[in-house]
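Entry 12.
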Amino acid sequence: MSLMNKLTQLAKSEKGKELIDKAQAIANDPKNREKIATARGKVEEQIDAAKHKFAEKRGEKDDAAQGTATATNPATTPTPPAPATSPPTEANYGGDEGPKAA
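Predicted 3D structure (tokens):
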């Protein structure tokens, strides 16, 4: 039996429906939404910092080959972190509106 078939069977069972209801309640809790938004912001900041660091290294290599100083390279100027995004206003789990699994 494939994994998708097992998951479908679980979702249709009484225990599966209870688990889905519990997961929806946890996901809709404002405290948990705030935790998710905070974690998302931290991850986005780390990604932006890593991208910036990578761009700086790439800029230094380009500048070294051209013989120019890195301080004049606009690609190496720091950028402010992206603002944290707010969580979605309404969660829509399950139902017939979402994409269908193949």
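Annotation: The mean pLDDT is 78. The longest helix spans residues 30-66.
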